[in-house]
Amino acid sequence: MSELTSFNLYTFFKLPSAWWTGVRVTKLDDIHAEVAVKHRWVNQNPFGSMFWAVQGMAAELSTAVFLMYTIKKSKQAVSMLVLKNQAVFRKKAKGLVKFHCTQGTDAIDAVNKAIKSGDAVAITLKSVGTDAFGDIVSEFEFEWSLKKKSK
């Protein structure tokens, strides 16, 4: 089973609101993650565009997949928690919106540091959502806390 399929099955079972609103991991490598979501009836707001919280779920997942994948490969128990998040909305989100995070190396390093040190490690990861025209619709930053679980 591919990693993309694995992450999308994870959303079905563990994040059903993301699944039903159309949030899907579409690309993942050691540097770049892409999560896409299409504006539909089920994820709209009263103003004819995608609800901000759906954008937030997609953006958060585009940062979390690096952490989750690295933790899974390490075979260590590591907790992840969003400490803070910040968002800026620039344009109505309509059509297909893709959220990109390009800090994979930083995320992998943070997980490895948390495992090695046993201390909590904080990292801020950014996700940028763009529409089919390449225009930025929203930008999110998530401050994650990572800590190896004690046995």
Task: Please tell me about this protein's structure.
- With 151 residues, the chain is of the alpha+beta class.
- The chain has a single domain (3-148), classed as Hotdog Thioesterase (Thiol Ester Dehydrase, Chain A), CATH 3.10.129.10.
- The chain has helices spanning 3-14, 16-20, 52-74, 104-117, and strands at residues 24-28, 33-38, 78-89, 96-101, 121-130, 136-148.
- The protein is globular and about 50 Å long.
- The mean pLDDT is 95.
| CATH architecture field | Roll
User: Stretches where pLDDT falls below 50 for ≥5 residues?
Assistant: none
Q: Please, how many domains?
A: 1
Indicate the structural class: alpha+beta
- CATH H level, superfamily name: Hotdog Thioesterase
Compressed to H and E, one letter per element, the order equals HHEEHEEHEE
Question: Which features would summarize this protein structure in a list?
Answer:
alpha+beta, Thiol Ester Dehydrase, Chain A
SSE topology:
Elements: H1 3-14, H2 16-20, E1 24-28, E2 33-38, H3 52-74, E3 78-89, E4 96-101, H4 104-117, E5 121-130, E6 136-148
Antiparallel strand pairs: 1-2, 2-4, 3-6, 4-5, 5-6
Helix pairs in contact: 3-4
Brief account:
With 151 residues, the chain is of the alpha+beta class. It has one domain (3-148): Thiol Ester Dehydrase, Chain A (Roll), CATH 3.10.129.10.
